[in-house]
């Protein structure tokens, strides 16, 4: 579900990300290189969209290195198609495997992962309905999140992907913090303002909040939510707009590659990127931060993927590759 929100996102016209210059179009000059190194299982939409959407942008230097090319250039980051499918429950690095020395650029860097919602929120409705200050507004402390039609909770999904993501990032030598791990220590929440504060106080170099959406069947695909420029109370996102966009673009490209999922077909104009100004977790962040909605739990096909441990490993790897690329690893 859309995290801490009961209200729908802004109208499509205002939430779409630079529809005239979608992120993939800015990389049109890298199409040949990307195609040459693209694994067989590469999500077809990326190249299709680049090829069809890049016209007219050739004069623009790519602002950001294409995630596909960047990721493929990292020898230690196996692609989903090349790596053997992990067994259910497998983590990115086998237990006992020492973490390799941090790649150049990653040493000393910190990533905060925010597992959306909490499996205990359903039992603590009074606590999570408490209003908190998000700078520009007041909102509920936290929400329950959605579930698949068979009852798999978004909070379970987000925690599982977050732990896999932590394993993948630690294997790269990064310092990783989770905002919570549910259980006895966190029977509900944290509240959205605290989730943001954890990233801020850790001076995180990147923060990612992991979610899955809960919209009507037939709506499919993933999207990454970027912070809008907001200022009010304790919220001032001016300094994180650009780095957050870069982080989000990296994650979107790599997530598409590792999972084979397409960008959401119900918002974002097919870019897989959406800007929102109503999320406390983004408004209150002073560090580069995005949310990812990995799929739609209310769509049977998406739900089948979200419920698969193998797919969740691919999802975590894609997010990890995006973060590592953003950090220059
Ligand atoms: Zn959510």
Structural class: alpha/beta
What name goes with the CATH superfamily? Zn-dependent exopeptidases
Strand residue content: 5-15%
> Fraction of residues in helices?
25-40%
- Listing every helix as H and every strand as E from the N terminus to the C terminus, the arrangement reads HHHHEHEEHEHEEEEHEHEHH
Which topology does CATH recognise? Aminopeptidase
Strand order across the largest sheet: 4-1-5-10-6-9
Q: Class in CATH? A: Alpha Beta
Main sheet: strands, sense, barrel? 6 strands, mixed
**How many separate domains?**
1
* Overall mean confidence score, pLDDT: 80
As residue ranges, the low-confidence spans are 3-19, 24-94
**What is the global morphology?**
globular
DSSP E strands, number: 10
Question: Whole-Å distance between the termini?
Answer: 32 Å
Question: What is the annotated CATH architecture?
Answer: 3-Layer(aba) Sandwich
Please tally the helical runs, counting DSSP H or I stretches of 4 or more residues.
11
Cα-atom Rg, whole angstroms?
A: 18 Å
Tags for this model:
binds zinc ion, 10 strands, alpha/beta, 11 helices, six-stranded mixed beta sheet, 329 residues, Aminopeptidase, 32% helix
Structure description:
The protein is α/β, with parallel strands linked by helices and 329 residues long. It has one domain: Aminopeptidase. It has eleven helices and ten strands. It has a six-stranded mixed beta sheet, with helices on both faces. A two-stranded antiparallel ribbon has the order 2-3. Helix 6 packs across helix 11 and helix 8 runs antiparallel to helix 11. The structure holds zinc ion. The site of zinc ion has 7 residues, from loops.
């Amino acid at each position: 579900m859309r995290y801490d929100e009961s209200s729908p996102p802004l109208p499509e016209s205002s939430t779409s990300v630079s529809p005239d210059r979608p992120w993939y179009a800015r990389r049109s000059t890298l199409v040949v290189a990307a195609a040459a190194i693209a694994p067989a299982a590469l999500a077809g939409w990326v190249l299709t969209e680049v090829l069809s959407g890049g016209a007219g942008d050739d004069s623009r230097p790519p602002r950001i290195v294409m995630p596909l090319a960047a990721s493929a250039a990292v020898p230690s980051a196996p692609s989903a198609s090349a790596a053997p499918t992990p067994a259910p429950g497998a983590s990115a690095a086998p237990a006992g495997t020492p973490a390799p020395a941090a790649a150049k650029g990653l040493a000393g860097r910190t990533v905060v992962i925010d597992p959306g919602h909490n499996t205990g929120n359903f039992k603590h409705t009074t606590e999570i309905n408490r209003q908190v200050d998000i700078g520009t507004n007041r909102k509920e402390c936290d929400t329950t999140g959605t579930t698949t039609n068979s009852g798999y909770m978004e909070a379970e999904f987000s925690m599982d992907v977050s732990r896999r993501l932590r394993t993948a990032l630690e294997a790269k030598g990064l310092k990783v913090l989770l905002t919570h791990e549910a259980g006895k220590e966190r029977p509900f929440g944290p509240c959205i303002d605290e989730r943001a504060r954890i990233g801020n106080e850790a001076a995180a170099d990147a923060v990612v909040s992991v979610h899955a959406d809960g919209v009507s069947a037939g709506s499919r695909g993933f999207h990454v939510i970027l912070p809008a420029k907001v200022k009010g109370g304790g919220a001032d996102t001016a300094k994180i707009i650009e780095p957050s966009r870069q982080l989000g673009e990296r994650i979107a490209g790599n997530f598409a590659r590792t999972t084979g999922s397409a960008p959401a077909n119900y918002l974002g104009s097919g870019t897989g990127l959406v800007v929102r100004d109503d999320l406390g977790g983004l408004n209150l962040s002073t560090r580069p931060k995005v949310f990812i909605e990995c799929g739609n739990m209310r769509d049977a096909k998406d739900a089948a993927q979200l419920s698969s441990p193998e797919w969740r490993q691919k999802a975590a790897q894609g997010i990890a590759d995006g973060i590592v690329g953003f950090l220059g690893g």
